[in-house]
Design a protein that fits this description.
Elements lengths: L1 H36 L6 H7 L5 H6 L5 E3 L8 H9 L4 E4 L5 H14 L4 E6 L5 H10 L4 E5 L7 H6 L3 E6 L2 H10 L3 E5 L5 E2 L7 H11 L4 E4 L5 H9 L4 E4 L1 H4 L8 H8 L6 E4 L6 E4 L2 H11 L4 H8 L3 H7 L23 H21 L3
Helix pairs in contact: 4-5, 5-6, 10-16, 13-14
Length: 367
């Protein structure tokens, strides 16, 4: 009888252990299914602490995220550049609309506003480019983006002063030339971009794989990117980072006129068009000036007639002074996705959060 009771006790313990084990396994299965169905939430504080993205671009510029704010005329002064750099991206001062003394002032203010890396964009067609470059070198700027010209002209001199050089291109021919000139990286800008554009009208979706085939240096994608999903898409195509312009125009720190910002956030798809192709192709937001350009081009206006229509100061009149009817409003196709003016740091954080969520969604997809 004694041995029977011992045997019954052991059987009871085995049954209890088995039940507990089954409950444990069932809970594990339920938790795993729940985790697979819930995407993680990303708060700004979490982003700042844990999301350094280690790749070619973040290492090249010594920044937290591979996000470059485009150096846009009349829109990207020291305040925007400093704000983006402080948020973990690379802020760029757009020097194309600045006199040399104004550029110097913006660089000095930017140095006071951030301890993080920032750069200056220099259109190589700028008439006082010698003065701009002298100021950039003397003020100790460490990153320069060049565009609209031959990269051989200034690359070596800038690199001799320890400056990292990036050149903006819109086709494979100029990408190869830029690499041969010794630049450290290139911005491959697609047809969707705002402002001055390539004549080939190659979209970013096609351009990035083309450029990755013909160069070995890092490639920064630009044109039509204003969201985290857009960032993920171009990086899936092979880009090492992104340059974003239009989204940062509609930021608190942008020097663009509030009337221009408001017109951006109320725009829809189809409200921009590449124009002035006989001069330098530029993507414009539709307004009365745009209509005049369209009418002139439909009447086969000559380059001289278009130049006269354009006149002087159209871009300043529209983007900086706020004449949204008669001014030149340069903005990209992605404007249709922008519905709110926000601080630059919030834009950076939103892009990174959406990028990570979109990447998580793809990782969880079953094919």
């Amino acid at each position: 009888m004694f041995y029977i009771r011992i045997f019954q006790a052991k059987i009871k313990n085995i049954i209890i252990y088995t039940i507990k084990l089954c409950i444990f396994i069932i809970n594990k299965i339920i938790n795993k299914k729940t985790q697979n169905n819930i995407l993680p939430s990303y708060s700004p504080s979490t982003i700042k602490k844990s999301n350094y993205m280690d790749n070619k671009i973040t290492r090249l510029f010594n920044i937290q995220y591979p996000i470059v704010q485009a150096g846009m005329i009349w829109c990207s002064g020291w305040e925007l550049a400093a704000a983006v750099s402080n948020a973990g991206g690379l802020g760029i001062i757009g020097s194309g609309s600045m006199y040399p003394d104004v550029l110097k002032e913006h660089i000095q203010k930017c140095k006071k506003a951030t301890s993080k890396p920032f750069g200056v964009n220099v259109p190589m067609l700028y008439p006082d480019i010698d003065k701009h470059m002298d100021i950039i070198i003397s003020e100790g700027v460490k990153i320069v983006f060049t565009s609209a010209g031959n990269p051989k002209t200034w690359t070596q001199k800038l690199k001799d002063h320890g400056i990292t050089v990036v050149h903006v291109i819109s086709n494979s021919k100029f990408a190869i030339k830029a690499e041969e000139a010794g630049v450290d990286a290139i911005v491959a800008e697609g047809f969707e971009a705002g402002g001055h554009n390539g004549r080939e009208e190659t979209t970013t979706l096609c351009l990035i794989p083309l450029i990755k085939q013909c160069v070995t240096i890092p490639v920064i994608a630009a044109g039509g990117i204003g969201t985290g999903r857009g960032m993920l898409a171009v990086m899936a195509l092979g880009a090492d980072g992104v340059q974003i312009g239009s989204r940062f125009v509609a930021s608190d720190e942008s020097s663009a006129n509030i009337k221009f910002k408001d017109k951006i956030i109320t725009s829809n798809d189809g409200d921009t068009l590449l124009s002035l192709k006989k001069l330098t192709p530029v993507r414009l937001l539709k307004n009365n000036f745009f209509d005049q350009v369209q009418q002139a081009e439909s009447n086969c206006a000559s380059s001289e007639e278009l130049t006269k229509l354009l006149g002087r100061g159209r871009a300043k009149k529209g983007m900086f002074e706020g004449d949204i009817d008669e001014g030149e409003l340069e903005i990209g196709q992605v404007a249709a996705l922008i519905k709110e003016i926000k601080p630059a740091h919030a834009i950076v954080e939103e892009i990174i959060a959406e990028y990570k969520l979109a990447k998580e969604e793809l990782n969880k997809s079953t094919w």
